[in-house]
Design goal:
binds glutamic acid; three-stranded parallel beta sheet; alpha/beta; Rossmann fold
Length: about 280
């Protein structure tokens, strides 16, 4: 049985690109189950009113899903348990670098920002701290970002791959982003960790999402291997553009489903315009 999900972050209102992504997952689960998950681990960027608006928009579009909806902020202890496993295997280390430290050290190492997310690849500064330096800094700072030691992790798992329905068999390259942060000082879990764990816990068999998240799957595949999870199938779909050819994006203040609805558009019209 196919199990898919739509997993929006309630950081704004849905736009037609989200509607496409939700309908894509819904359609792919015709013979199975479609789940909704609210990815709200970042308390600064996520707002309950956006979560309510997302649910209302999706219902208005005609989508239905089983209750209860998994809301990530209610499951922080699950993510903490996974972090403990990784920490226990010596795969996480605390990082005390500021953004400025990273930019300086990466520039000295002549590292370029990663093309996908624009962040510099972490030059590994805190990976080299001794146990006593770590303990001392932890006591001094009170908290840290926890990074995954990608090289050590890859050594434990060996070569990995996953299957994408659009692109075929993909060899995993988890080192593309360097040592990613799995738990932040202010948010004690990361997108990569929560999404991988939840897809596992919810029995998702097919992860559908936009192509902008394709590269993240390299890291998710590594986490699956480390945490002994099965690997779902993937289908990263093309990102949708508005009638003027611009990609729908929250930060560009794309037209929202709420605005279109207020202007009198029907769900059928929106579905037709985005190909559903
Ligand atoms: N929460 C993520 C977002 O809104 C999507 C997660 C996923 O589909 O893997 O961008």
């Amino acid at each position: 049985m196919t199990v898919t999900r739509f997993a929006p972050s309630p950081t704004g209102f849905l736009h037609p690109g989200h509607a496409y992504s939700a309908l894509f997952a819904y359609d792919a689960a015709k013979d199975g189950a479609f789940l909704l998950r609210i990815e709200d681990i970042d308390p600064v960027r996520c707002k309950p009113e956006f979560a309510s608006a997302i649910i209302e928009d999706l219902r208005w579009l005609g989508l239905r899903w089983p209750e209860p909806v998994r809301v990530q902020s209610q499951h922080m202890e699950d993510y903490a348990a996974a972090l403990d496993i990784l920490r226990g295997r010596g795969l996480l280390y605390p990082c005390f670098c500021t953004r400025r430290d990273i930019e300086r050290d990466a520039a000295n190492a002549a590292a370029a920002p990663h093309a996908e997310d624009g962040n510099f690849i972490y030059p590994g500064t805190c990976r080299h701290l001794s146990a006593s330096e770590r303990a001392e800094k932890l006591a001094q700072h009170g908290a840290a970002n926890w990074r995954l030691d990608i090289a050590a992790a890859m050594k434990q798992t060996g070569a990995l791959s996953w299957h994408d329905r659009a692109k075929g068999q993909i060899a995993a390259q988890p080192d593309l982003f360097g040592d990613v942060v799995l738990a932040r000082k202010d948010v004690p879990a990361s997108y990569h960790l929560c999404v991988t764990m939840d897809d596992h816990l919810q029995g998702v068999t097919l992860v559908t999402r936009g192509e902008d998240l394709f590269a993240s799957t390299h890291i998710h595949r590594l986490l699956q291997a480390l945490l002994d999870y099965e690997t779902p199938d993937y289908h990263h779909h093309a990102l949708q553009t508005d009638p003027s050819g611009r990609r729908y994006a929250k930060r560009d203040k794309s037209v929202t489903l709420q605005t279109l609805r207020a202007e009198g558009k029907t769900p059928e019209e929106i579905r037709r315009e985005i190909g559903y």
